[in-house]
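Re: your question about Cohesin subunit SA

S., sorry for the slow reply, the queue was backed up all week. Below is exactly what I fed in.
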Amino acid sequence: MESGSSISDSIDKLDYTSDSGSDYEATMIAKKRRKQTVPVAQPPKRPRHNAALRGMSSLSNSPIPTTPDPSLQQQQQQSSQGTFRQVSPRPVNAGIQGISAKDIYDAVFSGKSAMVTVVDEWLCSYKQGREAGLLVLINFIVQSCGCKGVVSREMFDSMHNADIISTLTKEFNEDSVNYPLSTPGPQLKRVKAGLCEFARVLVRSCRNSFIYDEYLFPTLLALLTGLSDSQVRAFRHTSTLFALKLLTGLVEVGVIVYVQLQTTQRQCDMEKSKREHDRASDRLEELQATISELRENREELSSLMNSTFRGVFVHRYRDRLPEIRAVCIEELGIWMKSDPEGFLNDGCLKYIGWTLHDKQSPVRLQCVRALQGLYQEKEFIGRLELFTNRFKKRILSMVLDKDPDVAVEVVNLLLLLQQTEEGLQEEECSHIYPLVYAEHRGLASAAGTFLYNKLKSVIATAKKETDKSDNAAFLKILISFYIQSEFHEHAAYLVDSLWGAAGSELRDWETMTGFLLQEAGGLVYEEEGALIDLMMCAMRQAAQTTPPHGRTQGKKMLSVKDKNIQKQDKRLITTHFIPLLPLLLAKYSADAEKVCLLLKAPMYFELEMYSNAQWLEKHLDLLLSQVCGIVEKHTEVTVLEACALLVGSVCSDRYTFSSRARLAVSQLLDSLAEYFSTYQSDLLQGTADDDDDSYSAISALKRIAVLSSAMDPTGWKLFNSCLEMLKSKINSGLLDKELMVPALKCAAFHLMWAKVNATNSKPAEAELIRLKKDVRSFCRISQTCLSLDQAEIRDQAFEMLCDLLLLYSVNSVRSEPALQTLVHLPSDSLRSEMAAFLLDYIFSDTEEAEEDEEEGKITLLQKKRNQLAGYCKLVIYGVIDLTAATDVFKHYDKCFKDFGDIIKETVSKTKLINPILSAKTICLSLQQLYSEMLTEDRSKRNLTEIRDLAKRLAMSFGVDLHRARKPVVALHMDGIRFAFRDVQDGEEPYPNIPFLQVLSEFSFKLLPKDRAQLAELLKSECPSAALSWPAVRMYQRSLETRSTAKSREQEERDDTVSLQATPVAKRRRTTAKGSVLSSVKGLELESSSLHSLHTPVLTSTVQKQPDKAPGKSTTTESDIGSGITELGSEDEFSSGLQMRKVKATKRRQVLPTTEQQDLTSHLSLLSLIEDVSEREEPHIEDYESDSSYSLPSTRHTSLSIMDELFD
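Result:
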């Protein structure tokens, strides 16, 4: 396109003159912009000719002047020396009745007026007097910058742009640095949209008239160019946005003029091609005149665009403010797409290539979006070939961008690249495939779309060789990808990523089951397992419409349409799988892994459909028969738990077929109980004749124990047998975890179901007494198990104790007075044993060191978290004293990574129960840690760990100081008394005074009047000789003023007692005699505060099986790109990608000497003007960037663990 030739040439010319070296060679050298000064006569007021504008565009490193006369440069030099002329402002519309600047401002930024009407009113004013009309428009721009100053008519007539800008800078409101385009919240979007719309409508309304009057747009753009070079951010930001939007409008007009010129030229050529006697001379002259006029218009537009591009864009695309850089790149993308002949060349593409390395993600985001608009047009691909080869490596690396939004758009861009003729190599695609397992759902979905299109292209290529349907071929290749990706446990994330693009293929249940039931020529063993995994995940996705763990994005309500789709999918799943599920279970009943997955299928059914027709009940019988057969075949806990979960669902009272299901399961339990009872005596005495019989009896007990979580086992009366077996094994010392673990489970479930039955049936008092006796007996046995050497037995006993103590607590029978007899409180010895278990096996790393595999460590950590949550529930629901939480609080900082969310929730809930007692407990936990430290050698003492814990616990009191007032004061009072307690025999004088350093970490939570009272208490408690001790003075200063973190650290360096760090010694097991619970019995929970607590979820009976999440990525996250770079010319596009870093070079700021005091009185340089050094053209240094994407966490999120464990 010829319309862009002058722009392209100007850009190329600019590149060779403004950059030393080639275009992509990064040799930007910091230097001051010099104004060329030529002493000549007084210049004219305003430009009037095209030559003026063309001469104005020749200065690329200074604001565009308003006249070609060199005398303008003399006046600019004079203004830089401070020769400002003060002119009193006067009304903008003097002498002309029309729209005012304030009217335009209110209409534009309120969004309530039609923009065309506003522009038309201003054009009427401009037609009456163009100087006055332009003055109104200029004052509107000044007001849009947030400036309170006004450009008067005298200033406009007698001053140049640099002088006007300097005057406005002095009159800028120094009270605030805010301006309209910095407005926070949703108002910013409306303000920016209004300003951009005004610029667009202004150019459109003037495209056939005032654009070519050689006054309005040259003058306006000259002023905007000057403002865009201002040190005041508001001027620079607003003027840059407005100027670039005007340039966008001019580009659109230029394209229209080019089309008109081409059309007219063709008509003229056709007229000339006619024979001489057939030509219409008048018509030919008219066409030639039109061509001449259009060419002049193109030259005028090209001059305007050149000057604006070089005066605004070239300098502002690397502005210090990321919002300005983002606007520049966004508009450049529009220009390239609208006028490819003028802008879609290497000279402009290099700016996008350089800013792909920008430190700020919004700028990188605009770069990628601009490229998306270009790669969407197939006719642009050839022009982009050099750019693609040069920057493809950089684009591929950006899929790991720290900002997920940028990474999402990059993946979408690469999808467009993949669809071109050259496409992406398989090695390049491998950068994107792992992102389907990413934590961010938007990024994973984008990667899923890319994978789907890639797989479809492979299928289309191989379709000629196979006769399979598209869905069958897709499933085959997806299974192959899933197996080769080596993320075998994360099918849920793969399905969730593909759900938006491949939803129809993943809902093809008929094809999937056809593959699985095919006898010959079907899938191999590994492929069958992968397909079952994918199918179950697809069923869950269709039935629940929720992402897997780790990808939850807030609470998103389903629309009515989505709910209808969900119901339809669930109905289709049910009707398809009801007759086929028994067949699938029969085929894979011997394979534990596959059958575990298939047993989840009924969880996604509409189970009510089993009772809709008699022929469906037949399938229910077949299903139950297969489940019972699987229970008899397997002893793996995972398989039995899956069967128990299914049994619990179909035996629910809400279904009419539940009695039929209970009958089938009861028959199974009858046979298992009978078999166990047959060999019970032999197991007790250890006289079993055959090891096979003993193994079968133990296996039967395992099955009964697991099924007891779903069915009431009290009818088989196995409690006494299990208890006797546990006593026998403990007394003999022959510990058998295969027997004792299911025995503990079976006995505990018996007591739990007995409590449920007692609540429903109201038994006699004698029955309740007998049940309580059984509970007491079980607790004694379990307490003994806590100290055994078998980890599985210890863990099972601890979990069952947590649940039973909760179920038989005071709060559990508060609404049932008749069941008060069942209340069982743990003894002091049991509390001590449980506290010792907490310290020795949950907060200890001994077992963790034994696990070598990552999966084993994750399983062990999950087990510990479950046990800690069970203990914390006992504290929260008042089963054990709140002071027992000290053993938990002491590890808040040390174990924050693994247990921080659980401990934080416990601290929060204890504050709701009894705020003051909770604060005292926090203080007590710190006192205990301090006392333990004193038992160590003096050279190894260190308060750092205790103070870090105090800092973290102090944050739990929240930001409302009035609400936390009493608890915080109580904590300080306890701490002061502890610091100055009476000296015991044989102790050094006042050993606890350094504890005041720990207490000072809570001082910032005190109100001023409480500080004074505590200061008086300190003086009364502290001996006069100790007032000068460093710890006392430090605590006194913390009470005097609210110290910042920085000042407190300085105090630590000045006043901290010299204590050397040492690893914390291993915790000693506590006993009933020395336990915290027995020594602080005066602190009791208020029972009335527990009424509002809901019934807790039991630790050991939770049957929910969360999906395993992929492991976390260990790569360090950082912003991709840490600077803007110029890397070479378009001739060097094919060279290697160099990442570079911008470092600003400082220069001295020069202020006008004669006006320095006046400027200081009107303007706050710290609030309005940015440091000149921050805007300098930067030096560039090599750097390396590092980024990563995140896989979903392997643990529960804080929300899910709290919902599941604390209810």
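The chain is about 60% helix and 0% strand. The first strand starts at residue 1140 and ends at 1143.

Happy to talk it through on Thursday.
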